[in-house]
Write a structure and sequence with these properties.
alpha/beta; globular; TIM Barrel; four-stranded parallel sheet; 2 domains; 20 helices
Length: 590
């Protein structure tokens, strides 16, 4: 007779696989620890064009050196974040613990490290800033270092490198009337149409038009990732109704036409087998209404228009990636087995308000890398049930950083997908024939991140039946949305309901805990709508704030409104209670 004191074979399998993974990961870590890592520390004498050019050469070499293994790390004590993560992962049980650090003192030392894998140089044309992006694309494809003419004059002969491509004077506007667009269209034919670029990565990186003279690092320091992944790099406007600030003589709508050519060509190369990440953000000073550039479209609508544009091409965005150092290094970190706390027992509903808070927006690389550490280390974290919004697709970029947050989470810390699933999409814009691929992509990353809740789905209308069906396959724990209909097509918020076992509701998007009095009023205006004889459910978005700020808000609300009974709960419990209340309702009945 089989004893009931032993787990079944099926129950043992997950434990066995986890043990095997840990064994292999430990062995790989031990082997990697035998290899030194090289550290180059930025020490700018002056932030100017010469510094910009040196960083461009540095990160293009870094991307090639790190393509197979994590070898070269760039530090910047002035910025601090690279040092923070280097120290964290080099201590304790961090994946870099035990690796010898070898300091590189000059860019020439970086070249000597890269020399065995470099095949030559690409020279870009400062008269056509777009060629800097073309040069970055070419560097990834050709295993080359990016050089300005001035940097080439200083280093080319000394380094004894051959010039693989010289872009100076190559683009005159003869094809489109725009030198900028000529450059990108040539690059599409040269690198996307030939299959030389990865169909999984596009990099929307600001070119040197504004950045070079100021020695701006934001979208220069990140190019190691583009080179390492052989991404196509571009900088174009998503708008067709006004000309961009960097190319005022182009034909109206030309940037958008070229943008669509890039998306279409990349989708064709993907062959329906994978989705494409668009890494980076549009240039505010060129394409949005900001000081110094009066335009038709403010920054938030420009962000939304970008996602509206790219989604039907099977693309999703990883928006802000500026100042994200060493992505080509971090991406090689071993991926831990990520686990979230098991949901607690279901408890009976009470006639009060259930409130849940989304600690948003850590859905792109920059806030995950730079903002979340400070807010995560807040003294009040763990004393309140809070939901931390990250994007699970960033496991491809910073697996070690996400793993570190999971490892230090308390039972009150819950991770949910943020804007919009495993990547920033407008799900209603996914073409019906592409929904199976959408499901496959998201199911993979939700499984890796042990997620079942989509905490902030951004779209232009409430989800269609087909979209909700898709989400039930990987997000059965819950679906919450913010609807912004910026095209005036009649978009509406969904009424709270259950859809085939998945809770569906809206995310309240008008909270600002930096202003406690205002936020307390916002919370009261929502909670006072609750019927006295039944529970109410209120889910608020709070962007880049600390648990201490959330506690202060709740304390103020309780003081100002003692007659409003409420309880703050994590989203797993929130949606469990939501199911009890709305379980007898169906979408059709509403």
């Amino acid at each position: 007779m089989k004893s009931t004191n032993y787990p079944s074979a099926l129950a043992i399998l997950p434990l066995l696989f986890a043990s095997l993974f840990t064994t292999f990961a430990t062995a790989a870590h031990a082997n990697e620890a035998q290899n030194p890592m090289y550290i180059y520390t930025l020490k700018p004498a002056k932030k100017d064009a010469a510094f910009y050019d040196e960083v461009a050469a540095l990160v293009s070499m870094q991307g090639i050196v790190n393509r197979i293994k994590p070898i070269l790390y760039v530090d910047n004590p002035e910025y601090g974040t690279p040092t923070y993560w280097l120290d964290k992962f080099s201590s304790g049980t961090g994946w870099l613990q035990g690796r010898k650090h070898i300091k590189l003192g000059a860019i020439d030392d970086v070249f000597e490290l890269a020399r065995p894998v470099l095949k030559g140089a690409i020279i870009w044309d400062p008269e056509v800033p777009a060629t800097f992006n073309v040069a970055t694309t070419a560097a990834g494809v050709e295993d080359a270092v990016v050089m300005s003419p001035e940097f080439a004059a200083a280093k080319l002969s000394k380094w004894k490198l051959q010039v693989l491509l010289d872009l100076r004077g190559k683009f005159t506007g003869s094809e489109t009337g725009s030198k900028k667009n000529d450059a990108y269209r040539w690059a599409i034919r040269q690198y996307i149409d030939t299959g030389k670029c990865s169909p999984h990565w596009l990099s929307l990186y600001t070119d040197p038009f504004f950045d070079r003279q100021a020695g701006q690092l934001a979208y220069n320091i990140v190019r190691d990732m583009a080179v390492s992944s052989k991404a196509f790099v571009f900088d174009l406007s998503p708008w067709g109704d006004e000309k961009p600030a960097d190319d005022l003589n182009q034909r109206l709508g030309l940037d958008l036409e070229t943008y669509k050519l890039i998306l279409s060509a990349t989708q064709k190369q993907a062959k329906g087998k994978q989705l494409t990440e668009v890494t980076g953000f549009f240039s505010f000073g060129k394409y949005a209404n900001v000081p110094g550039h009066p335009g038709k479209h403010d920054p938030v609508p420009t962000e939304w228009e970008t996602v509206w544009l790219i989604t039907p091409y099977n693309c999703y965005q990883n928006t802000a990636t500026e100042q994200c150092y060493n992505q080509s290094f971090h991406r090689h970190a071993p991926l831990a087995v990520l686990k979230q706390p098991a949901p607690g027992p279901v408890r009976p509903l009470q006639n009060k308000a259930y409130v849940s808070i989304l600690m948003a927006d850590y859905d792109s690389a920059y806030p995950l890398y730079s903002f979340l550490p400070k807010n995560w280390d807040d003294a009040k974290r763990g004393t309140l049930p809070l939901n931390w919004g990250i994007n699970p697709n960033l496991l491809e970029t910073y697996p070690d950083i996400i793993s570190s947050f999971y490892a230090s989470a308390t039972p009150n810390d819950h991770f949910v997908a943020d804007a919009s699933a495993a990547g920033y999409f407008n799900p209603n814009r996914i073409l019906p024939q592409n929904l199976p691929l959408f499901v496959k992509h998201n199911a993979k990353f939700y499984r890796q991140a042990d997620m079942t809740i989509s905490g902030m789905v951004l779209d232009w209308d409430q989800p269609t039946a087909a979209v909700k069906d898709a989400f039930t396959t990987f997000s059965s724990g819950g679906f919450a949305t913010i609807v912004m209909d910026l095209h005036g097509n009649g978009g509406k918020d969904p009424a709270p309901h259950m859809w085939k076992g998945m809770p569906v509701t809206r995310l309240l998007n008008n909270m600002d805990p930096n202003n406690l009095e205002y936020s307390s009023k916002v919370m009261f205006d929502e909670l006072k709508t609750r019927k006295s004889n039944e529970p109410g459910f209120y889910y608020f978005r709070c962007v880049w704030v600390t648990p201490t700020q959330i506690q202060a808000l709740l304390d103020l609300f309780a003081k100002e409104h003692p007659d409003q009974p409420f309880e703050i709960v994590g989203l797993p419990e929130f949606f469990s209670l939501f199911k009890q209340h709305y379980g007898s309702h169906t979408a059709a009945a509403r």
